[in-house]
């Protein structure tokens, strides 16, 4: 919510938790994949994008329908995300091209496993082409294919908000049709360095997740809960969230489940694909969000002082996300370069990386509060979609 009227702390808490879970998944520790799949069909990505949609309404949709949309502010935010993405790519490029200081003709990082994990094998052969493709968002190495999704979604946000003003039903129908079409045809953006040659997060599909968040955010903007509060709906959401955990484990870790995914059938894409955000992933994400808004333990967590660093991470998601991406890329390299990394070292890296991100979030929040104390102004919504 608008900061002056009291923020929606559940959005901050969920986003902060999602950032930490995304970091753990990106590190490629021996337990990362099992941890990622332990929450059901949906993972932190769906929840984060849905929260981004809710935040976008609270941040950019004026309460007065006669007031124009802040298009310039939205596009400035999109460009800010793009610049952060370029900075991360530049850091990765510099690291890969860094020469070995104790001998000519060698690089600091030469382990093939590390280069493959980072998806930068083509960088040294044609560095200018790689950098140009990265700037055009057609070469997205390692985990650096996430911020470009937000660049595209933020670029489309003025149109989505304008459609929502005209007719929420029209927005939902158009978004749903595009999601179905993208999933059925596997339409996606080009990524020349990733296996399969396409974006891991198809914007044509993931816009549907954002739009669902927009619809929920519109209800919050009107002072309503994001979902109708019905006992039967609560029971249904709980059943979906709980049953999806063993069902997803069976899909990911049993021979039958792996064989089903290997077929790449159209139904697989429709129901469980991450690139095209399958139906089961969406239903699970919606169920989790419903429970988050109706469980008393979540309400208490939003007020718990010891969870303030996590909520701060949600408020300052872009710098924390960028920090997590940088740290997880280094961890990826460590894991790929070694045949066996001790579990204790993996756990230490996870804890250290988490603490670094929470410390960054705490410092950002302290700086924000200091600025507000020194320059008081009328309360406005300063939430950001990312």
Automatic annotation (TrEMBL):
Pfam families: OpgC_C. Keywords: Membrane, Transmembrane, Transmembrane helix. The chain crosses the membrane at residues 12-35, 41-61, 82-102, 146-163, 168-184, 204-220, 232-251, 271-293, 318-337, 343-362. The keyword Transmembrane helix applies. Residues 367-386 are annotated as: Disordered. PANTHER family: BLL4819 PROTEIN. This is Membrane protein. It comes from Aureimonas endophytica.
């Amino acid at each position: 919510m608008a900061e002056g009227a009291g923020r929606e702390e559940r959005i901050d808490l969920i986003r902060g938790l999602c950032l930490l879970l995304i970091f753990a998944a990106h590190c490629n520790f021996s337990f990362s994949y099992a941890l990622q799949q332990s929450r059901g069909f949906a993972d932190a990505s769906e929840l984060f994008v849905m929260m981004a949609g809710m935040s976008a309404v609270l941040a950019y949709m004026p309460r007065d329908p006669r007031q124009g949309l802040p298009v310039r502010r939205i596009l400035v935010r999109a460009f800010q995300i793009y610049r952060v993405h370029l900075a991360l790519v530049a850091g990765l490029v510099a690291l890969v091209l860094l020469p070995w200081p104790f001998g000519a003709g060698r690089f600091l990082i030469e382990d093939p496993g590390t280069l493959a994990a980072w998806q930068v094998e083509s960088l040294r052969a044609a560095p200018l082409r790689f950098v140009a493709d990265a700037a055009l968002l057609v070469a997205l190495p390692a985990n650096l294919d996430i911020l470009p999704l937000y660049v595209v979604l933020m670029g489309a946000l003025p149109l989505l908000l304008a459609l929502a003003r005209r007719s929420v039903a029209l927005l939902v129908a158009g978004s749903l049709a595009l999601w179905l079409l993208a999933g059925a045809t596997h339409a996606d953006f080009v990524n020349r360095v990733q296996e399969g040659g396409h974006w891991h997060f198809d914007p044509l599909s993931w816009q549907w997740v954002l739009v669902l968040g927009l619809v929920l955010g519109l209800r919050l903007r009107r002072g309503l809960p994001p979902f109708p509060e019905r006992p039967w709906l609560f029971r249904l959401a709980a059943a979906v969230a709980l049953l999806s955990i063993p069902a997803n484990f069976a899909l990911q870790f049993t021979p039958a489940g792996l064989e089903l995914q290997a077929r790449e059938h159209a139904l697989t894409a429709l129901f469980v694909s991450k690139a095209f955000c399958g139906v089961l992933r969406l239903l699970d994400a919606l169920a989790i969000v419903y429970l988050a808004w109706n469980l008393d333990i979540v309400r208490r967590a939003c007020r718990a002082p010891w969870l303030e660093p996590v909520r701060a991470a949600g408020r300052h998601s872009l710098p924390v996300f960028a920090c997590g991406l940088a740290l997880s890329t280094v961890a990826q390299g460590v894991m790929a370069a070694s045949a066996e990394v001790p579990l204790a070292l993996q756990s230490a890296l996870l804890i250290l990386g988490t603490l670094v991100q929470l410390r960054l979030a705490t410092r950002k929040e302290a700086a924000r509060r200091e600025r507000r104390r020194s320059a008081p102004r009328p309360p406005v919504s300063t939430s950001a979609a990312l």
